Amino acid sequence: MERLSDRELTVLNLIMESYIVSAEPIGSRFIAHMIHNRLSPATIRNIMVALEEKGYLFKPHVVAGRLPTHKAFRFYVNNLLKVKSPLREEIQIIERLLKPRYSYVEEIMEDASRALATLSQFTSIVVEPKINTMLFKEVEFVKLSYHTVLALFVTSSGIVHTRLVNTEEDLDKDLLIEMKNYMNEKFGGVPFYALKEGIIEDLKQDREVYNRLLKKIQEALENIMEEGYQRDIYIEGTSTMIGAPEFSDIQKLKELFNTLEKKEKLLRLLDSFLEEEGISVVIGSEINIQEMHDMSIIASPYKISDTSYGIVGVMGPIRMDYSKIIPLVDYTANKVTTILKTM
Fold first, then answer.
1. 162, 151 in Cβ contact below 8 A?
2. CB 3.0-4.6 Å disulfide test: which of 82, 234, 334, 343 passes with 109?
């Protein structure tokens, strides 16, 4: 990326900050007024033309100011942005909406999503971790009928995954209790992928009925892990996009809402953030989802264990106030991590 002069940096920064607030094209006279006419409007126009030629600005109309491009926002986030600390009032709202103790992980996800949507005034997203990276805590078996057992797999953070296990024979309660105790004692605290591998190893046992049940449990676990893309995404505040200038095209707004409802594309995108440490900012056309090219996403992982991560974040128009929202996302992710590790 080419080097910008001090004057170009000053003008570009002022345009970015003004556009984030106004969503309107920014003119040279407005910039001159902001810097108390230290540069003339004519000089500023020349600087803006240079920035346009370098791909940072574009002119939407014949007679108008200029707007920043996606390239300009990437440069702004990487080089010009001054991230603020969360305000005391914002921290108090997060602390109030996120209780210190929870009985169910789902409640944490819902409250974290609500807190971010409230404070950012944009759409929040919270994704639960992949099941195969989570730690197994215990299993419970409930006999529903002659051939059907309900298996409840509980993670260390309290998330419960249920599956029906259809058996070929009538399993007595003593065998189910024996199987439960065996799995809880042997596999408690291991990741789910290791639980599945451990069961495969134990299928070498000689006890036929025991083996048949283990095989069914293994199949249930494979089914749970193969459906990882279906794990929950908690989305709050989608209505904030209605009425924003960037989403005035009703057809584009419908397509965006359809994408959010289907979730598969969004989940694959959010999973890519797990490869990064700390805050990730993806801007406009960097998002590999066509319907979201007018948006940005700010996201951060939260941790359940050293190997198990989920995502919290905010998505909204490209002109989001990054200096405010980045620290909010970071603080919320750290808060969720703290709560989950004390459950």
1. yes
2. 234
Reduce the secondary structure of 124-173 to three states and give it as a string. Answer: EEEECCCHHHCEEEEEEEEECCCCEEEEEEEECCCCEEEEEEECCCCCCH
Class of domain 132-229: alpha beta
Give CATH for domain 6-80. Answer: 1.10.10.10
What confidence score (pLDDT) does residue 228 get?
52
How many helices and strands (H and E) does the chain possess? 12, 10
Q: In whole angstroms, how far apart are CA 203 and each of 22, 139, 210, 215, 218?
A: 65, 18, 9, 7, 10
Q: What token pair was written down for 151?
A: 């298996």
Angle at which helices 192-202 and 173-187 cross, to 10°: 120
- Of 65, 60, 63, whose CA–CA distance to 15 is shortest? 65
> Encoding tokens for residue 294?
């007018």
Q: What is the mean pLDDT of each run of 10 residues along the chain (343 residues)?
A: 88 95 92 91 95 94 84 94 85 82 80 92 89 84 86 82 80 84 86 78 61 77 66 86 81 85 82 80 90 92 81 93 93 89 73
Q: What are phi and psi of 162, to 5 degrees?
A: -115, 145
Spatial CB neighbours of 288, under 8 Å, sequence gap ≥ 6: 269
The span from the CA of 174 to the CA of 121, in Å, is 54
What is the identity of the amino acid at 216? K
At 331, list the tokens.
């603080």
191 - beta bridge partners?
135
Q: Where in the chain is the domain with CATH 1.10.10.10?
A: 6-80
DSSP, collapsed to helix, strand or coil, labels residue 312 as: strand
Q: Which residues in the chain are classed under CATH 3.30.450.40?
A: 88-129+231-341
The CATH homologous superfamily of the domain defined by 88-129+231-341: GAF domain (3.30.450.40)
pLDDT of residue 197: 76
In the chain, which segments carry CATH 3.30.390.60? 132-229
